[in-house]
Amino acid sequence: MAYSSPRSVPLPTAVRIGLIGSGWMGAFHAESIVRRVPGAVLSAIADPNIEFAEALAASLGTALVTASSDDVLADPSIDAVIIASPARFHADLITQAAVAGKDIFCEKPAGQDLAELEAALAEVEAAGVHFQIGFNRRYAADFQAAKHDLAAGVVGRPQLLRSLTRDPGTGTIAHAAHVPAWTIFLETLIHDFDTLNWFNEGAEPVEVHAVADALVEPDLRDEGFLDTAVVTVRYSNGAIGVAEANFSALYGYDVRGEVFGSKGMVQAGRATETAARRYTAEGLGADTPRLNVELFRQAYTDELADFTAQVRSRRDGTPSPSNVFSLTPGAADARRALACALACIESVQQGRPIKVPHDETAQPIRVYSEL
Ligand SMILES: NC(=O)c1ccc[n+]([C@@H]2O[C@H](COP(=O)([O-])OP(=O)(O)OC[C@H]3O[C@@H](n4cnc5c(N)ncnc54)[C@H](O)[C@@H]3O)[C@@H](O)[C@H]2O)c1
Fold it and tell me: pTM here?
């Protein structure tokens, strides 16, 4: 018996990706591209701390390195960029990448205020490049299952929605003094706002009322560091959402979502690391996920697989991946979630509910009663 040769099928050219920012999240995205996302290659890494970029490239055994994102953006062989620098650089980098004709995956938030975000997104639209924001929770299997039920009408009209984030911690936050003010809204709860918005698709967030405090690190309250927050969100279809966050859950990383509607309820959120349960004289126990890259390892991979597929389909003119419900978070989602986060900051500062500014260019709101 001899091996036979397969018929040769032309392989599509891999999507060539440049990484901008090689810290905690950028390094994980780089590893995902190299090890877990078929059809994508990591071509270059840019980081002003070039030793970070060099160490990452060496550990993955691939990619050119540079201290300047300009080199990546000027490289005609690169199809797309992943932006994982600190948030304050995102809007400028989106603008520069769009002008350079690169498709863009950007970590959240895509901007720090609506003016800079809208200006950057206008460049994206003018350049006609693909834009995806890093709302990874949409890609978690349980959140997708919940979304599937919602889209199929299983839960009926949403009345109450809930999303929560409890970051893993030790009871103290060692780096708290270096965390930018309002991070709890701009970088943490922004995920929850996207979950609520996505689960309540077709409605717009109209008003938020946020209460926040420094309960883990009370000594830092006067320096503007907030580690605990609860937000109510009123929606245009009448539904009421609640988002909450805390930066120090001793039992691990806890992310959940829930929609209660006219026909029932759906919940998402994986409390345990695996399905294993430990029964002993002390009772019942289980391991919990301790890091975002444990809980969302597959979701982080799948968001980049989606991005790669979309970039390839635009580049090669192949059919784009289809879903039975909206999945890929784009420009409007980035703006809507940021508008909620910014309104929360104002709400805390003023101690009252604040209207969420609408995108004047967005599609007209469709409320559930019209669906
Ligand atoms: N989706 C998620 O669950 C998730 C989780 C963590 C972080 N993030 C987001 O990822 C982004 C980065 O966070 P992080 O925790 O990796 O931060 P980090 O500080 O670990 O890494 C940031 C990196 O960017 C580099 N950098 C600084 N200025 C740059 C520039 N102008 N161009 C290119 N690189 C630059 C820094 O040297 C550093 O290596 C943030 O927007 C954060 O909100 C998302």
Answer: 0.95
